[in-house]
């Protein structure tokens, strides 16, 4: 496994893996038009390029045997999708292609989030996960995350409920 901290030069690779992993994860449970609209909006050159250039966001690309397997996106400060959590680090995106799941990549991604949070003096990690994504919810619970709130995630024209989960780092 190779982990690369991504920058603006990695836009196309990040765009490709972002679209692949999101579509693979959610296409069976969502309307195709909503999914395509979201993929264009969320992972377009301008939006994703701005996220890569933001000094309060951190992207990591995961390679397995030379193949891009997935990625991780972390946020602090104003880059977070919820702004009342200044003392926290957000795990905004953690996606891997299905064929690479079960190989410890998710655990490594959470470990990177822990390291980055501690380096930046944050006291907790937090994330949002779709209420219908039971495998992800179970994964996070096994790693010490607990539910604390919810927010709305808009996929195309569909308003969906995300469960917000947090993990205290000093606990």
From TrEMBL:
The keyword Acyltransferase applies. The keyword Transport does not apply. Gene3D superfamilies: 3.40.630.30. It comes from Fructobacillus broussonetiae. It comes from the Bacteria. Pfam families: Acetyltransf_1 (PF00583). This is GNAT family N-acetyltransferase. Residues 1-170 form the N-acetyltransferase domain. InterPro entries: Acyl_CoA_acyltransferase (IPR016181), Bact_Acetyltransf (IPR050832), GNAT_dom (IPR000182).
